[in-house]
Request: fold
Amino acid sequence: MSSIGTGYDLSVTTFSPDGRVFQIEYAAKAVDNSGTVIGIKCKDGIVMGVEKLIASKMMLPGSNRRIHSVHRHSGMAVAGLAADGRQIVARAKSEATNYQSVYGEPIPVKELAERVASYVHLCTLYWWLRPFGCGIILGGYDRDGPQLYMVEPSGISYRYFGAAIGKGKQAAKTEIEKLNLSEMTCREGVIEVAKISIYKVHDEAKDKAFELEMSWVCDESKQQHQKVPDDLLEEAKVAARTALEEMDAD
Amino acid sequence: MYPYVTGTSVVALKYKDGILMAADMGGSYGSTLRYKSVERMKPIGKHSLLGASGEISDFQEILRYLDELILYDNMWDDGNSLGPKEVHNYLTRVMYNRRNKFNPLWNSLVLGGVKNGQKYLGTVSMIGVNFEDNHVATGFGNHLARPILRQEWHENLSFENGVRLLEKCMRVLLYRDRSAVNKLQIAKITEDGVTISQPYSLKTYWEFSAFENPAQGAIGSW
Reply:
């Protein structure tokens, strides 16, 4: 799938003869090398999960948050270059507070996704700026119900009912397609996401240690974006590990 | 620079479980008692309660600043939240900096709250004067309510006694402050959260014998 774009890949302002911008494609590769990020839209809300690969045993668990709240009702999970992600999250927060102060209501998720996407796209238009090396899964709950969007380094954004980015995205997407999301509640969704991130997608051989970070925004959390409560997270991890053992036992 | 729609005194005291605060619901337009359902006390975040006297529009602007402050605090999602002491400090900075630019927010604020069992009650004025105490009041409350509180306040007041004491202060203010209206709310904040009562009125008594036949000693006067 990868082709060498010799000569046409030096700048983000250069098209190749077959109409591709290689720099943007290389930026997408940065996303593919990071830990998997999954988002699903359930009946009553959104669940997002991140497989945080732990670089060192000395890192404090719970640090290096990958999922950030953008306003009360929405959150973003970032894959790829963490520093680039921080910049996008800061911009999203600023857009959200600005919309609230001008229009007096929380930013609709569709509007937020458009603003984030156009900001990411902006950085693909100038030769003195490099594209962002991160993919974003944005989940929120507004008047039109729960919505899930994904923004890629090229600046395109689509609305999804299930999305995955990062290393294990193919395996994750296959699993998500098997789920019956329209009937699932977020409580059940949390367990499913844990199962997918832990046993379907995580490669024990290549990356040993990882931490699972999950967040949701649903009716149960009063349409506020927050970390999944500890007891439910534990329950999900236990269920995922048992499923993994059962699978290994076969 | 002068205020247009103003609220009158706010009175607050510390009691056994937290803070009790009282304010009437009047918004005066100069000498006209124009608006009679103005809520002058609002909860801030999880741990604080803000009461304001002075220009109502400036109070609404302060609430917007605090809303953004609390939002950013919530977005950290790290288990911590801003307590009353922090909010009071923030308000002091805002009020003082505006005063230094000769563009004050024309309010006297009362900030009370409880966090981790610690009770806190402070006040900030429009020029940035701030302090904390066991009982505070703004405007006319300073002159009429605080002497009563100095006499009768003590540590660990029960809820009923605290309310009784506040009502005593508010009654004096109702009799003597021309911008007071007889429709007030009492708010309490404890570790468990904020409760603001439904509006109600105080009973007043106008049959004091000293005021019967006031022109007795001086015919023609009133």
Observations:
- The interface with chain A takes residues 64, 68, 71-72, 74-75, 77 of chain B (CB under 8 Å).
- The first helix of chain B runs from residue 56 to 75.
